[in-house]
């Protein structure tokens, strides 16, 4: 009797390098070392990254459509007062795109996984800074205006997102186990708290169902689930093997991230249309451009550094360096020195 043929991308965790393991995911992995073309084709095949890719492809399509529909009712592209809102739409598309790229190409080799997620962190940090800009412009509490909080808000947001991108990229290097994830998670939480503090204050102290606070309230409820699924790896850790391909935590996390962005956009537009006091930010475009450029330079530096380390490993100069993936898993480079296509017998 013949054996049942398995799917093209159905490798178990025992058949791939430990570095590629995800907590609680024991199957459905793509073959390490696939090419760019095979990575693109795999978007339309079933494996444990398929829904990670499609959840943010769907979000990208939604935000583009939402931006176009908004521009038909608001002068989104030419009204200077709507520039922060336009940047919110564009940065939402940016983080969705960088996420898709990271999850599409992370099985090519070790370097592609590191580079892909460094670019992913870049998209997140640009979005976080633009969020701060839009919160100051449309949603700042009246009682915080003309205070030191308003005067230092942009600088604090810029520095917190710069810290986040620096530590997130740096966390791809050291062999610290779960500390790698904390190096990434805690600075992102800090930048989120700083950028969203005006909305949290309004939800708790200035709630008004007629303006954007009702949408911000929904956003914060959504944020609890977002951080909960990202940090807990539930349900796959509780039921290993049952959520390899469908409904594991990162897929759910992506859905809540996109939903939270939608609530945030709805709230900003509600504040703008309800006449909430508007703060015009001089040189808004310049501020966003400088922030994006600064974070791009930091990201490129760490990409260059990772590439240099990879080259030194190939030369046998750094064979004992440990690396950390996105979930705190580490591996020794001697056990994984440039993964090529694995000659695993398929059934």
Would you kindly provide a brief summary of this structure?
This protein has 347 residues and is mainly α. It is built from nine helices and two strands.
Q: Would you kindly provide a written description of the structure presented here, covering whatever features stand out?
A:
This protein has 347 residues and is mainly α. It is built from nine helices and two strands; from the N terminus they run αααααααααββ. The chain has helices at 36-41, 50-73, 83-105, 110-138, 148-170, 179-205, 213-232, 249-274, 284-314; strands at 322-324, 330-332. It has a two-stranded antiparallel ribbon with strand order 1-2. Strand 1 (322-324) and strand 2 (330-332) form a beta hairpin. The longest helix has 31 residues, at 284-314. It is globular, with a radius of gyration of 22 Å. 44% of the residues are buried. The model is unreliable at 1-5, 317-321 and 332-347 (pLDDT under 50).
Instruction: Count up the helices.
Output: 9
Fraction in helix? 55-70%
**N/C terminus separation:** 13 Å
Percent of residues in β-strands:
under 5%
- Structural class from helices and strands? mainly alpha
For the secondary structure, the number of strands is 2
Taking pLDDT < 50 over at least 5 consecutive residues as the criterion, the unreliable ranges are 1-5, 317-321, 332-347
């Amino acid at each position: 009797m013949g054996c049942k043929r398995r799917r093209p991308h159905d490798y178990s965790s025992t058949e791939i390098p430990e570095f590629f393991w995800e907590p609680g995911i024991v199957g459905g992995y793509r073959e390490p070392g696939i090419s760019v073309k095979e990575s693109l084709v795999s978007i339309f095949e079933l494996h444990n990254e398929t829904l990670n890719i499609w959840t943010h492809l769907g979000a990208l399509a939604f935000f583009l459509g939402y931006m176009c529909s908004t521009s038909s009712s608001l002068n989104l592209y030419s009204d200077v007062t709507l520039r922060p809102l336009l940047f919110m739409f564009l940065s939402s598309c940016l983080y969705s795109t960088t996420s898709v790229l990271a999850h599409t190409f992370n099985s090519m080799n070790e370097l592609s996984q590191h580079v892909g997620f460094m670019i992913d962190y870049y998209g997140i940090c640009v979005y976080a800074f633009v969020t701060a800009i839009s919160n100051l412009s449309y949603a700042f509490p009246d009682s915080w205006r003309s205070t030191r909080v308003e005067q230092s808000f942009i600088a604090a947001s810029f520095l917190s997102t710069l810290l986040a991108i620096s530590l997130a990229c740096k966390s791809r290097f050291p062999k610290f186990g779960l500390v790698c994830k904390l190096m990434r998670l805690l600075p992102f939480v800090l930048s989120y708290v700083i950028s969203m503090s005006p909305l949290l204050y309004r939800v708790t102290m200035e709630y008004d169902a007629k303006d954007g606070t009702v949408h911000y309230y929904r956003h914060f409820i959504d944020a609890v689930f977002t951080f909960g699924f990202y940090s807990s790896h539930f349900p796959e850790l509780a039921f290993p093997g049952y959520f390899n391909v469908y409904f594991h935590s990162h897929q759910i996390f992506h859905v809540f991230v996109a939903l939270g962005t939608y609530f945030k956009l709805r709230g900003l537009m509600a504040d703008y249309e309800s006449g909430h006091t508007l703060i015009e930010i001089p040189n808004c475009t310049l501020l966003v451009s400088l922030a994006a450029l600064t974070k791009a330079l930091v990201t490129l530096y760490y990409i260059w550094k990772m590439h240099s380390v990879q080259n030194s490993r190939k030369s046998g100069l750094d064979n004992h360096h440990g690396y950390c993936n996105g979930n705190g898993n580490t591996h020794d480079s001697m056990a994984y020195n440039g993964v090529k296509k694995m000659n695993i017998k398929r059934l």
